[in-house]
Design goal:
- 40% of the residues lie in helices and 24% in strands.
- The protein has 149 residues and is α+β, with helices and mostly antiparallel strands.
- It folds into two domains: 49 residues, no CATH class; 76 residues, Alpha-Beta Plaits, CATH 3.30.70.
- The strands form two sheets. Strands 4-5-3-6 form a four-stranded antiparallel beta sheet, with helices on one face. The protein has a two-stranded antiparallel sheet with strand order 1-2.
- Strand 4 and strand 5 form a beta hairpin.
């Protein structure tokens, strides 16, 4: 991948790259085209494509010993539809919201604060926090699944 970046920069040219390694694509490409069954599902700058992801699901990692109390605290929030375990041994929770958070207004960001605040007030350490749909892999899966329907 470093060689591809070097060639593109050195010669000021575009490079067409076909890959299933979406985390690498996200890091090195300016524009992407997403295909499903040979049809273009979407295309454009990476940041624009990332904005198309639904963000009504969050992944939160906490210490394994705090899983039950964390689930209890998060389910008390009115914006939370469901809390499920992603990996009991890894401490990941999957939190589904009652609405889609696309980051287009300030209220979308307040749910982040509410989720984190509930855990912090309960004395539960947060090791990691991320929105599903915030990575190219997530958006690819969402968009190609919709295209198949």
């Amino acid at each position: 991948m470093a060689l591809i970046q070097h060639i593109a920069r050195e010669y000021g040219t575009g490079v067409i790259l076909c890959s299933h390694s979406l985390s690498e694509i996200e890091g090195i490409c300016d524009d992407v085209v997403i295909l499903s069954s040979g049809q273009v599902v979407t295309q454009g700058p990476v940041n624009q494509i990332l904005g198309k992801g639904q963000r009504n699901v969050y992944r939160i990692q906490i210490p394994v010993t705090d899983l039950a109390p964390a689930q209890e605290e998060l389910t008390k929030l009115s914006a939370v539809l469901r809390v499920s375990l992603l990996g009991e041994m890894s401490g990941w929770l999957r939190v589904e919201l009652t609405y889609s958070n696309n980051g287009s207004n300030p209220e979308d960001y307040s749910i982040n604060n509410k989720l984190l605040g509930a855990l912090i007030q309960a004395g539960i350490p947060v090791m990691s926090f991320e929105a599903e749909g915030s990575r190219l892999q997530d958006v690819f899966l969402q968009l190609t699944e919709e295209a198949i329907k």
